[in-house]
Amino acid sequence: DKGRPPLPPGPPGDPVIGHLRILHPHYHWKTYVQWGKTYGERNVMYTNMFGWPQIILNSIVDAKELLEKRGANYSDRPRMMLLREVMGLRGLTFLPYRDRFRQNRRLIQQFFNPRASAQFRPAQKLQVMILLNHLLQAPEDFLRHIQRWASRTMLNVAYGHQVVDDDDPYAAVVERTNMLVSNSGNPGATLVDFIPILRFFPAWFPGARYMRHASEIKILNRRMVDETFELAKRNKAKGFGKQSLSSKYLDILEQHGECHGALEDDMKEMVASIYPAGVATQRASVTSFVLAMVHFPEVAARARKELDLVVGRDRLPDWSHRKSLPFLEWVLKENFRWNPVTALGIPHRAMEEDVYQGRRIPQGATVIANIWAMTHDESAFPDPFIFKPERYAEGDGKNAAFDPTDAVFGFGRRQCPGRFFADAGLWLAMACILANFDISPCLDDDGNAVLPSIEFSPVFTSNPLPFQCRITSRDEISAALVRRGIQDMVEGGFES
Ligand code: HEM
Q: Which of ligand 1's atoms lies nearest the C-alpha of 371?
């Protein structure tokens, strides 16, 4: 390495295993902030895992400079040995930046860009209406209702499938497969990602046993991908789910006639990949929002006041009101910032060696954007743990250095293609909940408020740890509105 620029600074590591020993197994994003303060130079750090170079970016400025401006070099993904090679996940999320990437990315963006994604609004609205009714009927199960809302929304948008009860067999298969995949570790950062040869070791070998389990998941996943696409075909034949992504893809395949080659396979994988991408993230966002409202009731009160003024009490909030509700807009932004649900995004990869600020970024380095660090940087967002929507107000009160939506969906050519869709669905869910439900802490035997702790799971998509609170319908007017909301959609001939 003589004569070449030095690597960015970082903590001292061990021979062979690199920084594995000093990287606390949980909440890597917090460890990286600590390391950044101690070793970082303008927040860019170098570490290695079993010799694999890793660059950590704790600041949005560097993430934008590298992952966006120099996007041609930084839009690849690390190899993802476990998820891609062993489990066989072939959707867009983990696809390398070559071959089919461009075509596949276009196939998603075509339907999820700001204009096209408006077609999913009726489906999103129906699911929010169902969520509100579930909250009305059994508010104590709110965590499950939110999970089900996210799952139903994505099953409907992906396959045109309408889940009607808790025993839905398709929902069960898709949920189980995705749960097994997501419990298997951080993408690109499991043991077999660092020691790829492990996958060929016998199961008795330490660390290799998991491989057998992973091969079983592969079979399950294959079946899930195929069966759900067949379901989508049947739905289409019956005239259901015309707005779904599968239905649009089947239209494209029809135009290609018999000679669509690998296109159908790609489409199947892509449809399957939007489910996990959209469920855990949206669920975590709404659950975080509920937790925040328990802790910051003055925010909920101010948002409701604005809603009452603009929307009134004789209808539910709708997207047409959005422009007239600036405070609610800040609540949404603050919620994205307070718990950026994919705290470390999804890793990128440097395809060629690069030099940044006089430091060398090795070819093949995994590049991690620490989104949590960016949205909890005290100099960008004073009192970062306080939920303070007014920090986005224009004028003197403004003390947010950037819009969190510019960070929480990732960067550059890999930036989340589902962001417009997610933003619209989350807005509606939050607006309707705030307008019609009171959220407050549970009470102990003596009538004292018991505030739930603010803790998030230490995994890839960070959800609040299970907590309790009281959700009650605001009054009879609200209860009637919520009931009518769903009736109106059904009577209005809503077609999923
Ligand atoms: C709160 C909601 C969501 C958040 C915070 C979120 C966040 C992210 C992030 C951080 C990435 C990685 C970007 C990067 O590599 O720099 C990503 C990728 C992705 N997201 Fe989302 N997402 C959300 C919802 C959705 C939804 C609803 C969908 C589907 C409709 C979706 C589909 C995807 C896909 C397909 C990718 C992979 C893109 C690629 O690799 O080119 N996401 N998302």
A: 10
Atom of ligand 1 nearest to the CA of 75: 15
Measured at the CA of 294, the angle between CA 291 and CA 300, to 5 degrees, comes to: 105
Confidence (pLDDT) at 33: 92
Q: Whose Cα sits closest to atom 28 in ligand 1? A: 418
Q: How far apart are CA 58 and CA 119, in angstroms?
A: 36
pLDDT digits (tens, 9 = 90+) for 221-263: 899 899 999 999 998 998 888 889 999 999 998 888 766 778 8
User: What residue segments make up the domains of the chain, in order of their start?
Assistant: 28-491
Alpha-carbon distance of 233 to 231, in angstroms, equals: 5
The per-residue pLDDT for range 474-496, each reduced to its tens digit, is: 999 999 999 999 888 878 766 54
Question: Is the Cβ atom of 274 under 6 angstroms away from ligand 1?
Answer: yes
Q: How many CB atoms lie within 10 A of CB 34?
A: 12
Ligand 1: centre distance to CA 277 (Å) = 6
**pLDDT tens-digit map of 86-103:** 888 888 999 999 878 999
Is residue 416 annotated as involved in ligand binding?
Answer: yes
Query: Is the ipTM value over 0.90, yes or no?
Result: yes
Is residue 368 within 8 Å of residue 345, measured between CB atoms? yes
Task: Answer whether 154's CB lies under 8 Å from 91's CB.
Answer: no
Q: Whole-prediction pTM value?
A: 0.94
Is 109 touching ligand 1 by the criterion CB < 6 Å? no
pLDDT digits (tens, 9 = 90+) for 50-77: 888 999 999 999 999 999 999 999 999 9
Q: Which residues contact 444 (CB under 8 A, 6 or more apart)?
A: 450
Superfamily of domain 28-491: Cytochrome P450 (1.10.630.10)
The DSSP H or E segment spanning 176 is helix 169-182
Residue with tokens 């649009």: 248
